[in-house]
Amino acid sequence: MGLARPCVLVHGGWCGGWHWDEVAARLRARGLRVEAPTLPGMAERADEATPDTGLHAHVNDVARLIEGNDLNDVVLVGHSYGGAVVTGVANRCGERIAELVYLDGFVPRHGESLADILGPEFVETSRAAARNAGTPHLIPPMFSVEASVGWTGQRAADHAARMCAQPLATAFDPTHAPRMPSARRTFIACSAQPLGLFDRYVAEARASTDWLYFELPCPHDAVHAMPAAVAGIIETLATP
User: What's the whole-model pTM score?
Assistant: First the structure.
Protein backbone atom coordinates (compact mmCIF):
# COMPACT_ATOMS: atom_id res chain seq x y z
CA MET A 1 0.00 0.00 0.00
CA GLY A 2 1.32 3.44 -0.94
CA LEU A 3 1.32 6.61 1.10
CA ALA A 4 -2.11 7.97 1.95
CA ARG A 5 -3.29 10.75 -0.29
CA PRO A 6 -4.14 14.16 1.16
CA CYS A 7 -7.87 14.93 1.27
CA VAL A 8 -9.45 18.30 0.51
CA LEU A 9 -13.12 18.46 1.51
CA VAL A 10 -15.31 21.22 0.06
CA HIS A 11 -18.56 22.03 1.81
CA GLY A 12 -21.91 22.74 0.18
CA GLY A 13 -24.15 25.76 0.28
CA TRP A 14 -25.12 27.72 3.37
CA CYS A 15 -22.42 26.30 5.64
CA GLY A 16 -18.67 26.33 6.22
CA GLY A 17 -15.71 24.07 6.77
CA TRP A 18 -17.29 23.06 10.11
CA HIS A 19 -19.71 20.93 8.09
CA TRP A 20 -16.96 18.33 7.66
CA ASP A 21 -15.79 18.27 11.30
CA GLU A 22 -16.91 14.75 12.18
CA VAL A 23 -15.79 13.19 8.89
CA ALA A 24 -12.47 15.05 9.03
CA ALA A 25 -11.86 13.90 12.62
CA ARG A 26 -12.41 10.28 11.62
CA LEU A 27 -9.98 10.58 8.72
CA ARG A 28 -7.33 12.34 10.79
CA ALA A 29 -7.62 9.64 13.42
CA ARG A 30 -6.65 7.20 10.66
CA GLY A 31 -3.54 9.27 9.93
CA LEU A 32 -4.74 11.11 6.83
CA ARG A 33 -3.99 14.72 6.04
CA VAL A 34 -7.28 16.60 5.72
CA GLU A 35 -8.04 20.16 4.67
CA ALA A 36 -11.64 21.38 5.02
CA PRO A 37 -11.59 25.08 4.17
CA THR A 38 -14.44 27.53 4.60
CA LEU A 39 -15.18 29.20 1.27
CA PRO A 40 -14.90 33.01 0.99
CA GLY A 41 -17.95 34.95 2.10
CA MET A 42 -19.39 32.13 4.20
CA ALA A 43 -19.54 31.14 7.89
CA GLU A 44 -16.54 32.65 9.73
CA ARG A 45 -15.48 34.30 6.45
CA ALA A 46 -18.84 36.05 6.01
CA ASP A 47 -17.24 39.49 6.18
CA GLU A 48 -15.43 38.74 2.90
CA ALA A 49 -18.69 38.52 0.95
CA THR A 50 -19.23 41.10 -1.79
CA PRO A 51 -21.68 41.20 -4.71
CA ASP A 52 -18.87 39.68 -6.82
CA THR A 53 -18.13 36.71 -4.54
CA GLY A 54 -19.06 33.84 -6.82
CA LEU A 55 -18.08 30.37 -7.92
CA HIS A 56 -14.82 31.61 -9.43
CA ALA A 57 -13.74 33.10 -6.08
CA HIS A 58 -14.45 29.77 -4.39
CA VAL A 59 -12.57 27.80 -7.04
CA ASN A 60 -9.58 30.13 -6.78
CA ASP A 61 -9.51 29.85 -2.99
CA VAL A 62 -9.43 26.03 -2.99
CA ALA A 63 -6.92 25.93 -5.84
CA ARG A 64 -4.63 28.31 -3.93
CA LEU A 65 -4.87 26.06 -0.87
CA ILE A 66 -3.78 23.05 -2.93
CA GLU A 67 -1.03 24.88 -4.80
CA GLY A 68 0.16 26.88 -1.79
CA ASN A 69 0.59 23.71 0.28
CA ASP A 70 2.12 21.87 -2.71
CA LEU A 71 -0.44 19.09 -2.37
CA ASN A 72 -0.33 16.32 -4.97
CA ASP A 73 -2.26 13.11 -5.60
CA VAL A 74 -5.21 14.80 -3.87
CA VAL A 75 -8.58 13.27 -3.05
CA LEU A 76 -10.84 16.26 -3.78
CA VAL A 77 -14.39 15.92 -2.45
CA GLY A 78 -17.32 18.27 -3.06
CA HIS A 79 -20.69 18.00 -1.35
CA SER A 80 -23.78 19.45 -3.07
CA TYR A 81 -22.81 22.98 -4.26
CA GLY A 82 -19.22 21.95 -3.56
CA GLY A 83 -19.43 19.72 -6.64
CA ALA A 84 -19.37 22.82 -8.83
CA VAL A 85 -16.35 24.12 -6.90
CA VAL A 86 -14.30 20.92 -7.25
CA THR A 87 -15.13 20.77 -10.96
CA GLY A 88 -13.54 24.18 -11.41
CA VAL A 89 -10.57 23.24 -9.23
CA ALA A 90 -9.98 20.12 -11.33
CA ASN A 91 -9.87 22.34 -14.41
CA ARG A 92 -7.29 24.65 -12.83
CA CYS A 93 -4.94 22.15 -11.16
CA GLY A 94 -6.03 18.78 -12.50
CA GLU A 95 -2.48 17.40 -12.52
CA ARG A 96 -2.54 17.52 -8.72
CA ILE A 97 -5.87 15.66 -8.36
CA ALA A 98 -5.98 11.86 -8.19
CA GLU A 99 -9.60 11.35 -7.11
CA LEU A 100 -12.46 13.73 -7.91
CA VAL A 101 -15.40 12.87 -5.67
CA TYR A 102 -18.96 14.21 -5.86
CA LEU A 103 -21.02 13.58 -2.73
CA ASP A 104 -24.60 14.10 -3.90
CA GLY A 105 -23.17 17.08 -5.74
CA PHE A 106 -23.54 19.05 -8.93
CA VAL A 107 -21.37 18.04 -11.88
CA PRO A 108 -21.78 21.06 -14.18
CA ARG A 109 -20.72 20.94 -17.80
CA HIS A 110 -18.21 23.42 -19.18
CA GLY A 111 -19.83 26.86 -19.39
CA GLU A 112 -22.84 25.84 -17.29
CA SER A 113 -23.84 27.78 -14.18
CA LEU A 114 -25.96 26.61 -11.28
CA ALA A 115 -28.66 29.00 -12.48
CA ASP A 116 -28.64 27.14 -15.79
CA ILE A 117 -29.03 23.83 -13.96
CA LEU A 118 -31.64 24.92 -11.43
CA GLY A 119 -33.70 27.10 -13.72
CA PRO A 120 -35.49 30.46 -13.61
CA GLU A 121 -37.77 29.59 -10.68
CA PHE A 122 -34.74 29.00 -8.44
CA VAL A 123 -33.18 32.26 -9.61
CA GLU A 124 -36.35 34.23 -8.93
CA THR A 125 -36.88 32.63 -5.51
CA SER A 126 -33.25 33.20 -4.53
CA ARG A 127 -33.25 36.85 -5.55
CA ALA A 128 -36.52 37.44 -3.70
CA ALA A 129 -35.24 35.73 -0.54
CA ALA A 130 -32.07 37.84 -0.63
CA ARG A 131 -34.04 41.06 -1.07
CA ASN A 132 -36.48 40.15 1.70
CA ALA A 133 -33.57 39.44 4.05
CA GLY A 134 -32.17 42.90 3.35
CA THR A 135 -29.01 41.42 1.80
CA PRO A 136 -29.46 41.54 -1.99
CA HIS A 137 -26.15 39.76 -2.65
CA LEU A 138 -26.68 37.00 -0.07
CA ILE A 139 -29.24 34.17 -0.13
CA PRO A 140 -30.46 33.12 3.34
CA PRO A 141 -30.72 29.36 4.03
CA MET A 142 -33.47 27.89 1.85
CA PHE A 143 -33.85 24.28 2.95
CA SER A 144 -35.14 22.15 5.79
CA VAL A 145 -32.63 20.48 8.11
CA GLU A 146 -35.19 17.75 8.68
CA ALA A 147 -35.36 17.01 4.96
CA SER A 148 -31.62 17.37 4.36
CA VAL A 149 -30.24 15.48 7.36
CA GLY A 150 -33.25 13.71 8.84
CA TRP A 151 -32.91 15.39 12.24
CA THR A 152 -35.72 16.93 14.26
CA GLY A 153 -36.14 18.87 17.50
CA GLN A 154 -33.28 20.62 19.25
CA ARG A 155 -30.63 18.83 17.21
CA ALA A 156 -32.14 20.21 14.01
CA ALA A 157 -32.52 23.68 15.55
CA ASP A 158 -28.87 23.74 16.64
CA HIS A 159 -27.76 22.70 13.16
CA ALA A 160 -29.96 25.32 11.50
CA ALA A 161 -28.49 28.01 13.77
CA ARG A 162 -25.03 27.34 12.32
CA MET A 163 -26.14 27.83 8.73
CA CYS A 164 -25.09 31.01 6.93
CA ALA A 165 -26.04 33.01 3.88
CA GLN A 166 -24.83 31.94 0.43
CA PRO A 167 -23.34 34.57 -1.92
CA LEU A 168 -25.87 35.04 -4.71
CA ALA A 169 -23.17 35.33 -7.38
CA THR A 170 -22.22 31.67 -6.85
CA ALA A 171 -25.29 30.75 -8.91
CA PHE A 172 -24.26 32.74 -11.97
CA ASP A 173 -20.57 32.17 -12.67
CA PRO A 174 -20.13 29.69 -15.54
CA THR A 175 -18.18 26.57 -14.65
CA HIS A 176 -14.75 26.03 -16.17
CA ALA A 177 -14.83 22.24 -16.37
CA PRO A 178 -11.97 20.05 -17.59
CA ARG A 179 -12.67 18.67 -21.05
CA MET A 180 -10.98 15.38 -20.21
CA PRO A 181 -10.61 14.98 -16.41
CA SER A 182 -7.30 13.35 -15.55
CA ALA A 183 -8.54 12.31 -12.10
CA ARG A 184 -10.68 9.25 -11.51
CA ARG A 185 -14.24 10.36 -10.80
CA THR A 186 -16.56 9.02 -8.11
CA PHE A 187 -20.19 9.80 -7.43
CA ILE A 188 -21.74 9.06 -4.02
CA ALA A 189 -25.53 9.22 -4.21
CA CYS A 190 -27.84 9.67 -1.24
CA SER A 191 -30.82 7.47 -1.99
CA ALA A 192 -33.24 8.26 0.87
CA GLN A 193 -35.59 11.16 0.06
CA PRO A 194 -33.68 12.08 -3.14
CA LEU A 195 -33.98 15.74 -4.11
CA GLY A 196 -34.17 15.02 -7.84
CA LEU A 197 -31.41 17.58 -8.48
CA PHE A 198 -28.73 15.00 -9.15
CA ASP A 199 -30.66 12.38 -11.13
CA ARG A 200 -28.79 12.97 -14.37
CA TYR A 201 -25.42 12.60 -12.63
CA VAL A 202 -26.52 9.42 -10.87
CA ALA A 203 -27.69 7.93 -14.15
CA GLU A 204 -24.40 8.79 -15.88
CA ALA A 205 -22.23 7.48 -13.06
CA ARG A 206 -24.17 4.23 -12.76
CA ALA A 207 -24.04 3.58 -16.50
CA SER A 208 -20.43 4.57 -17.21
CA THR A 209 -17.25 2.61 -16.60
CA ASP A 210 -15.51 5.99 -16.29
CA TRP A 211 -17.07 6.51 -12.86
CA LEU A 212 -16.97 4.75 -9.51
CA TYR A 213 -20.42 4.75 -7.96
CA PHE A 214 -21.52 4.41 -4.34
CA GLU A 215 -24.96 4.76 -2.81
CA LEU A 216 -25.80 5.64 0.79
CA PRO A 217 -29.30 5.04 2.25
CA CYS A 218 -29.65 8.50 3.77
CA PRO A 219 -30.95 11.99 2.98
CA HIS A 220 -28.90 14.54 1.04
CA ASP A 221 -26.58 15.59 3.88
CA ALA A 222 -24.70 12.31 4.24
CA VAL A 223 -21.84 14.22 5.89
CA HIS A 224 -23.99 14.41 9.02
CA ALA A 225 -26.45 11.58 8.45
CA MET A 226 -23.79 8.88 7.83
CA PRO A 227 -20.35 10.34 8.71
CA ALA A 228 -18.70 6.95 9.31
CA ALA A 229 -19.76 5.67 5.89
CA VAL A 230 -18.65 8.88 4.15
CA ALA A 231 -15.29 8.78 5.92
CA GLY A 232 -14.92 5.10 5.01
CA ILE A 233 -15.36 5.75 1.29
CA ILE A 234 -12.97 8.69 1.32
CA GLU A 235 -10.37 6.66 3.25
CA THR A 236 -10.62 3.88 0.68
CA LEU A 237 -9.94 6.33 -2.12
CA ALA A 238 -7.09 7.92 -0.18
CA THR A 239 -5.19 4.67 0.48
CA PRO A 240 -4.08 3.28 -2.90
Answer: 0.96
